[in-house]
């Protein structure tokens, strides 16, 4: 057991624990089997040196300049061809033309609504009601017409005489 | 550099020449070979202390060095190669141990009888010692994982508390506290076992 850990572990350790630690220490100190290093070396040598990656064939690798140029040209060709293909397939003729909004002079506008829903027909009266002004009643006891307030006269639409004339 | 390479050098990575590649590979191979001869024994002992089987431990060491070979480009960045290698093999053996079924204690006894140094002892004494060690290992197996890991690694002379902490990815104080708990639990388990006998 290493010195630091051993100091801590041995402080107050019972004999059973110390014996157990001695066992662990013995097992941890067992020698490696002979020929281990050689076997591991042989295993490493037998292992593939490189991970499998996509790369150019060796015959083409020596002068890779033109291959790179060709690859770059191919990439450009594919990208440009793809763009052209998309362009030719999506023509302006296929664009859905929106109907022009008809503006009606006067009245309310549709506020830009594309479709005006049909509204319900409201109820129609058979005999239209005509508003009738109510005449003031003459009082039987006094024989005078009741004094109208300014507000009520104004409500009836009557012409109010000037105050000076009424005093005279 | 050809004209095509000169054009694309700004935005395309130009590979090194085959000669440079070959010499670099050779240098890396030599480094890995040096690591094998220096640390194979240490890694084997770490692996054996967990797996308790010689061939499994050897396989684990082999796998660890194959991983090193796969990541040999990183070797220059590694500060402490010994701890780095122990960490690799530790992860491998823990993974194998997790996948493997629980080994019966008799297997451990047989394996220990085989690998323990005889040192002038009789066959009976060796068998008795192996049985005792197997009992201890059975108690270690009953510990919680965290405590077990620390106790197992603390048995290695060459690993300090800091290095154990590095291997396990914890702090040094955690190593100490786990070791303390592990020892207390071990004492309880050994007492319990003794009372049963």
Q: How would you characterize the overall build of this protein?
A:
- The complex is a heterodimer of chains A (168) and B (197).
- Chain A is mainly alpha-helical and 168 residues long.
- Chain A has a domain at 3-46.
- Chain A contains 7 helices and no strands.
- Chain A has helices at residues 3-10, 15-28, 36-46, 58-61, 64-89, 150-156, 163-167.
- Mean pLDDT of chain A is 70; it is low at 157-168.
- Chain B is mainly alpha-helical and 197 residues long.
- Chain B has helices at residues 3-8, 18-51, 54-70, 81-99, 105-115, 123-142, 145-154, 161-168, 172-196.
- In chain B, helix 2 (18-51) crosses helix 4 (81-99), helix 4 packs across helix 8 (161-168) and helix 7 packs across helix 9 (172-196).
- The longest helix of chain B is centred in the first third of the chain and has 34 residues, at 18-51.
- The radius of gyration of chain B is 23 Å and the shape is globular.
Shape estimate of chain A: elongated
The most extensive contact between chains is:
A-B, 44 and 61 residues
Number of helices of chain A: 7
By secondary-structure content and strand pairing, the structural class of chain A works out as mainly alpha
Give average pLDDT of chain B, whole number: 80
Q: SS-based structural class of chain B?
A: mainly alpha
What would CATH call the architecture of the domain at 16-100 in chain B? Answer: Orthogonal Bundle
> What is the N-to-C order of secondary-structure elements of chain A (H for helix, E for strand)?
HHHHHHH
The tally of strands of chain A reads 0
Measured distance between first and last alpha carbons of chain A = 132 Å
What is the radius of gyration of chain A computed over CA atoms, rounded to a whole number of angstroms?
55 Å
Briefly, what is this?
With 168 residues, chain A is mostly helical. Helix content of chain A is 45%, strand content 0%.
Can you tag this structure with a few keywords?
heterodimer, A: 168 residues, mainly alpha, elongated, B: 197 residues, Rna Polymerase Sigma Factor, Chain: A
């Amino acid at each position: 057991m290493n010195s630091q850990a051993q100091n801590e572990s041995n402080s107050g350790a019972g004999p059973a624990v110390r014996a157990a630690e001695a066992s662990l220490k013995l097992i941890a100190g067992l020698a490696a089997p002979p020929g281990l290093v050689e076997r591991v070396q042989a295993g490493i040598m037998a292992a593939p040196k490189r991970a499998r990656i996509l790369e150019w064939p060796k015959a083409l690798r020596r002068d890779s300049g033109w291959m790179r140029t060709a690859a770059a040209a191919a990439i450009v060709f594919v990208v440009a061809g793809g763009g052209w293909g998309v362009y030719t397939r999506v023509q302006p003729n296929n664009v859905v033309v929106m109907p022009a909004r008809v503006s009606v002079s006067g009245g309310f506008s549709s506020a830009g609504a594309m479709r005006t829903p049909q509204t319900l027909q409201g109820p129609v009266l058979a005999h239209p009601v005509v508003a009738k002004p109510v005449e003031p009643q003459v009082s039987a006891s006094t024989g005078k017409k009741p004094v109208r307030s300014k507000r009520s006269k104004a409500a009836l639409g009557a012409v109010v005489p000037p105050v000076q004339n009424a005093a005279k | 550099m050809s004209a095509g390479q000169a054009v694309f050098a700004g935005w395309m990575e130009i590979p090194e020449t085959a000669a440079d590649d070959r010499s670099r590979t050779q240098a890396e191979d030599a480094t890995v070979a040096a690591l094998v001869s220096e640390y194979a024994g240490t890694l084997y002992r770490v692996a054996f202390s967990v797996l308790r089987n010689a061939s499994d431990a050897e396989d684990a060491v082999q796998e660890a060095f194959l991983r090193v070979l796969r990541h040999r480009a990183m070797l220059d960045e590694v500060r402490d190669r010994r701890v780095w290698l122990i960490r690799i093999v530790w992860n491998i053996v823990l993974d194998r141990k997790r996948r493997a079924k629980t080994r019966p204690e008799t297997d451990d006894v047989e394996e220990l009888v085989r690998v323990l140094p005889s040192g002038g002892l009789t066959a009976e004494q060796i068998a008795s010692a192996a049985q005792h060690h197997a009992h201890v290992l059975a108690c270690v197996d009953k510990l919680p994982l965290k405590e077990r890991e620390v106790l197992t690694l603390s048995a290695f002379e060459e690993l300090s508390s800091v290095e154990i902490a590095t291997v396990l990815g914890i702090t040094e104080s955690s190593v100490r506290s786990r070791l303390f708990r592990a020892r207390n639990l071990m004492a309880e388990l050994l007492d319990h076992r003794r009372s049963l006998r």
